[in-house]
Please model this.
Amino acid sequence: MERVKTGMAIQSESGLEPYVLFEERTRIAEELHDRICPHLFGIACAVHSVEQEWGSLSEEQKLEQLREIQAAASTASREMRATIYDLSSAEEEGASWLDGIRSLLHSLGKLNGVRIGFCAPDSVCRLSVHQRKALYRIISEAAGNAIRHGECSEVNVKLSMLRSSVTLRVSDNGRGFDACARLAKEKEYGFGLRNMRQQATSLGGSMQICSQPGSGARIVVRLPI
Model:
């Protein structure tokens, strides 16, 4: 298409297009990080676990673990394709976002032998792109922490929406921790917690942590709509 050489066109050619390209590259990088990396991390953890337990596993158990890893790799591939061929409609994007969360939690649960429940409203079209990204990252981090550090057997993720806010609750039945002590030494122990809190506060929201040793943990995030 031939450009008209007006002042606006010159600005678009020299300034706007590089900026738009930069924004698009950033968006693609974030999408890949959010939707692909958690699956790859789960696969890496599962491979490490199988390697450690290989000698004590039966042939049937080995085959089952390899099938789970293969299924997780297929899921990561599907997420990659979904990211590349992003849907345009806001409602479709909301459905795709929820499907992405379900896929992530299903993969984490299968690879680590943990039951993970997910409850969400039928439509999340009122959530902005930034809110969806933040909530996805918080869910991924919270569920991963519950599995890696909490040594839990069950995680429940619930997303609920009111007219002016959205609330995310992630709870587990793991070993728990002293929330007050952990937050007091957040710089030393809580990089994951800091990251989740920053995701929430950057959008004007808040995060609460309820946990005690031996009683599991619950993280509650609220964002304004």
In short: The radius of gyration is 20 Å. The CA atoms of residues 3 and 13 lie 9 Å apart. The chain is about 60% helix and 15% strand.
